[in-house]
């Protein structure tokens, strides 16, 4: 099996611990490394790719150590985060070189297949310097897929993509994952992974904060306590009505409206409209106050 | 994408071969495409211009070995330093090296391919101009012109190995700083003041080779040609081997994300 296996992996830079004692096994299918910026996702991916030596612990792909093992790239493809490609090359040249550097027998055909797969054939003869960020991402993916790898590692692959490109890339990753490939991508945007099924590994502060099926984690995220700012035609009356509901744990009347702490995100958002209607109150605004990713991840880390 | 992937790659060996044509072409295009390429040519033009000027103003046998031996070989060293930074350092700086390293090409092959390009560029932008300047000064077939040219060829071989190794071991900016210190302080200053320092100077190896043909005391070659070639070989081979080993343990720059 071409599993990716991390055993007690840590990485530090001087006194800064970037990755702290992570163990996990990633099998076939699509797996997302999710976490805020600076969480250690890139460090983990770099170690998986053999671009970084773990300070402690061991990483293997298909049972082989990734460190100092270039032969492993016969079955591993990497899409780095940094937008640094040989911009003076055309897309076709770039993917073609990647095919030849992988020692493929029919490099030209493999390159064309990969370019078609990411739908870049129309722009393949233009220089990469003329590409948009989304196009660069796609040509990088083509170069990484050109040898049909068992394992594909992508660092923030959806960066700079418009929604349609993002959807297409997700379909592509799903298709690859569905064929038994091990696909690992990182993202700091919850919405990006929302459309991707499969397994999620949540990384916060260099640690594995949550791990498992995407839906379970999503539920964990939506069921956490939320703070909403609510404004209505009669805040005081609405506040009195809300505090009687089990989904609401605290209500505060402020100069700008009600600050409502909901213990159950889903139930609160479903109930608030009906409740105000029943009391003849006109609802003007329901605003989540703590939707920042950091607060979501911090919650996950604590739970 | 075929379904042959499962059986074809489970035992991953690096690609065979010492040199890789694609990396050579890519490196050459990248190096010549950058504005830096203009930097390569500038010192060479200055050297040739200076020789032409001196020839016109002071047609004497005194200045050619002095100027071409010191200024010419300083330009040789600095060109190798800039070229070395260009063939490897720029890619490490902008991260595009990862596209080369995410392939089964052996790291030795990456280093040797880039080294070949660096030597060729240094010959084109420093050794050939050195010969042209020598030819202007003392004639195309003079011992001095030919000797300095052959010495510069040796210099291109040794310096580039050394600077490529520095670039692989340190960050590109550090490598440039250490390289400059080596050329200006160690070779430029100490080697002329402290006897014995020349034994660890690529410039003196080159001068020894040059002097074996030119036989000119004004070149100030401290080493005999056997020592120069022997030490040059040791430094070249050791540097390239160390660079290859270092690149196979390449740690991508550590931004904590």
Fraction of residues in H or I helices of chain B: over 70%
- Strand count of chain B: 0
Whole-number tally of structural domains of chain A: 2
The major β-sheet of chain B equals: none
Strand order of the largest sheet of chain A: 6-7-8-3-9-10
How many H/I helices of chain B?
A: 10
Which architecture of the largest domain in chain A would the CATH scheme give at its second level? 3-Layer(aba) Sandwich
**What portion of residues of chain A is helical?**
25-40%
Helix/strand class of chain A: alpha/beta
CATH class of the largest domain in chain A: Alpha Beta
* Structural class designation of chain B: mainly alpha
* Helix-strand string of chain A: EEEHEEEHHHEHEHEEHEHEEHEH
Strand and helix map with partners:
The complex is a heterodimer of chains A (303) and B (257).
Chain A: E1 4-13, E2 16-26, E3 29-34, H1 41-48, E4 56-61, E5 64-65, E6 76-79, H2 91-101, H3 107-117, H4 133-145, E7 151-154, H5 163-178, E8 182-187, H6 190-194, E9 199-204, E10 207-213, H7 214-222, E11 226-232, H8 235-243, E12 248-254, E13 257-262, H9 265-278, E14 283-288, H10 293-302
Parallel strand pairs in A: 3-8, 3-9, 6-7, 7-8
Antiparallel strand pairs in A: 1-2, 1-4, 4-5, 9-10, 11-13, 11-14, 12-13
Chain B: H1 5-8, H2 21-33, H3 36-57, H4 63-94, H5 97-101, H6 107-138, H7 143-169, H8 172-193, H9 202-214, H10 225-248
